[in-house]
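Methods — Computational structure assignment.
A single polypeptide chain was analysed. Its primary sequence is given first, followed by the predicted tertiary structure written as structure tokens.
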Amino acid sequence: MEFLTSVIGEINGIVWGWPMLILILGVGFFMSLGLKLMPILKLGTGFKLLAGGVHAKEGEESEGEVPPYQALMTAMAATVGTGNIAGVATAVFLGGPGALFWMWMTALVGMATKYSEAVLAVHYREVDEEGNHVGGPMYYIKNGMGKSWGWLGAAFAIFGAIAGFGIGNGVQSNSIAAVIETNFSVSPLVTGIILMVLVGLVLIGGIKRIGSVAGALVPLMAVAYIIAGLVVLAINADQLGAAFALVIESAFTGHAAQGGFAGAAVWAAIRFGVARGVFSNEAGLGSAPIAHASAQTKDPVRQGLIAMLGTFLDTIIVCSVTGLVIVTSGLWTSGESGAALTSAAFADALPGVGNYIVAIALALFAFTTILGWSFYGERCVEYLLGVKFIVPYRILWILAVPVGAVLSLDFVWLVSDTLNAMMALPNLIAILVLSPVVFKMTRAYFADKS
């Protein structure tokens, strides 16, 4: 295991090196400029479309399996997970408070990336032999870039099908098991088995069941967590100004060793801020467009405007709450990391209650992520092997839940982080190549609206 960890660690250092960070931020920045900052300027339009698209209109929005709102909630279910609680804490622990700033930057340009992914996913989607709309990077690579690029689409599907067991399954069940054991003294194996049963019950119903469960759970859990975080920030209000100043300063100067904090250079703040930002909001990863391809919509741009909200809500709102709670508490120098650090920060302001809030929030966040990512993995396997392999993959997915619950968290995080980067590469290349399509469709949409 030590040798395997060492090898994957070396690969991780390569795939998350400067070239990848430049590519992720560069693609987002390029798309933002090409769209003339539309994702930021039209944020309100996206929320209006979301509010009006909770239920698809008969006839007008007949294509697809789930309403636009449920497509976003399915994507959000997979997106809002341990990255928002444990991932943010890990970024601050390894990169210092400045990592939070680079998470924000990743999200702001990532909105353009997420918008572009969804536009391409709906525009180039197909209908499979069971009558379901399927799409995502593998389809817009094949249908948009041509058959000669088919190998790139297959590479994404392979990485996606495997990565799901890390980022979408193992990391999530492991985090749930750890936080439940810490706070409620329940064995990780018992937690894993209960999770396996619950996940199995939902997955039997496919995308429509996932969409309805996500549509109910995601808003409830996100709003409850945000309110709890705002209460903590109100308690720590006298530290907010200093916290913001520390985040900005550390982003450009790094931070020296302090207390249990080992110190971090600017490079560490950028590296862990961007990596954990992508892990959390998945902009550029290529996963979310798989869910948006199932939306009941005939207009790719409309779904893109709704899709970009996922990045804003995930990172600018939820991750910011976690990060600022940690920094204002001062406990980021305590030597704690991951969910334990977030839990300690909440408990510091809300003794006897804060740790339980984090435990329940993380469990719900991670549970919905397991559901959302199962759908992503199924679509990747369907692209590679056909619909007949969906059920075997689903069974394997369900059985993997208790296994992930008892694995080493450090190893699971490392594998997930590495596979994330390998998924992102084919998708980011496709977005760049197909950017003229996104720009043209966007101009046409807003020209009609003017």
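Note: The first strand starts at residue 126 and ends at 127.
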